[in-house]
Amino acid sequence: MTSRILSANASDSRLCASVLADAFSEDPLMATIWPDRGRRHAALSGYFDASLRHFHVAGGGVRYAVTDAGDIAAAAVWDPPGSKQSIARTLRALPSLLPILRGRTSAALGVRSTLDAHHPTRPHWYLANLGSSTAQRGHGFAAALMTDQLARCDRDGVDAYLVCTSPDNIAFYEQFDFVVTETFALASGSEMTSMWRSCAAR
Ligand SMILES: CC(C)(COP(=O)(O)OP(=O)(O)OC[C@H]1O[C@@H](n2cnc3c(N)ncnc32)[C@H](O)[C@@H]1OP(=O)(O)O)[C@@H](O)C(=O)NCCC(=O)NCCS
């Protein structure tokens, strides 16, 4: 497999959202927000598009991998050290997000507040989302995105943090030297796993 890795700007958000919506269609965190499968599948693409545009793209850490044929295969959403979802930014996002969340707004806020309560304060790059299209799994696209960003972390001497939303993926991140630091549950009972990668040992 060969891939090109590109930095996303606002005009790429819909493309990245489509691959993330596909990747996260059965994700336990997303299922906590939308337990109903049909509603979840209908909402995810718009949800990721609005989230990317309002909260992530400006940080410069949204990257995506494309195949030789030019199709998007995977996307990674990294937030730089110190990034905060300010109240002003959240207010600007509401007109896009509320029609998508509708009756699930309080579930989404509950998930957000649980994640925030466990979010470390030490400086780090935060991997908010990583997903490969179901058609392109196992071809190294997610690994290429991880290697790309983690090289940047090592070069800049910055640690990295993520919340693994499914126990099935812990081993994936351990390959990249992330270690489990904590587990906690969402309101649905789904177990989340905090993982940290220190660059100090490199
Ligand atoms: C997890 C995910 C991103 C992996 O994407 P992918 O493009 O298939 O991964 P890659 O092809 O780059 O895999 C690289 C290596 O990791 C291994 N790997 C992939 N998924 C793995 C998993 N869940 N556990 C352990 N190893 C895994 C691959 O076998 C491969 O190993 P190799 O280098 O020895 O061949 C993808 O399965 C996905 O999008 N899942 C749904 C969304 C999700 O759960 N995201 C993570 C939220 S915590």
Provide a quick synopsis of the model.
With 202 residues, the protein is α+β, with helices and mostly antiparallel strands. It contains seven helices and seven strands.
- Helix fraction? 40-55%
* Residues in β-strands, percent: 15-25%
With helices defined by DSSP (H or I, 4 residues minimum), what is the helix count?
A: 7
Give the helices and strands as they follow along the chain: EHHHEEHHEHEHEE
Distance N terminus to C terminus? Answer: 27 Å
Poorly predicted runs of 5 or more residues = none
Going across the biggest sheet, name each strand in turn: 1-2-3-4-5-7-6
**Quick one: biggest sheet?**
7 strands, mixed
* Helical/strand content category: alpha+beta
Enter the CATH topology name.
Aminopeptidase
The CATH superfamily is known as Gcn5-related N-acetyltransferase (GNAT)
CATH class designation? Alpha Beta
Kindly state the mean pLDDT as a whole number?
95
Number of strands: 7
The second-level CATH architecture is 3-Layer(aba) Sandwich
Query: What ligands are attached or bound here?
Result: coenzyme A
**Form type:** globular
The domain tally reads 1
